[in-house]
Amino acid sequence: MATPQERIETDVKTALKSGDRERLATLRLLLADLKNERIRRRDEVDEAGFVALVRKGIKQRQEAAEQYRRGGREESAAREEREADVLAAYLPQQAGEEEIRAAVESFVAAEGLAGPAALGRVMKEMLGRFGARADGATVNRVAREVLEGRS
Known about the structure:
Elements: H1 4-18, H2 21-41, H3 47-70, H4 74-88, H5 97-111, H6 119-130, H7 136-149
């Protein structure tokens, strides 16, 4: 299986050949982020680190799009959203909220947990179970809702 860097380099070449400038620019930035992370770690970036970089890039672009919209710059906001979509293609298939909720409810019931004090245990279990397939913010929100309902 190709490393994240190899996958991005291959996709950069494809975007270059196809003349897709926007995709090319986005992938080059991701490649630079990946190389910087590799230097920072002094080791190759594993799959979890790569997913974290991609999520960070998506979040940055979503926040930028929101700022552009507030400033009345719809075209720039749309560009940022397209870049976020390019990056989202590199994320593993995400678990749906229903799947996360079912897992949280099952774990909470099996362990007999309730209240906000149990949030740490639930988060540790769910993030371990779902890994890169679930966003921590979504897991946290669902866990809080389930635990509040059991208080």
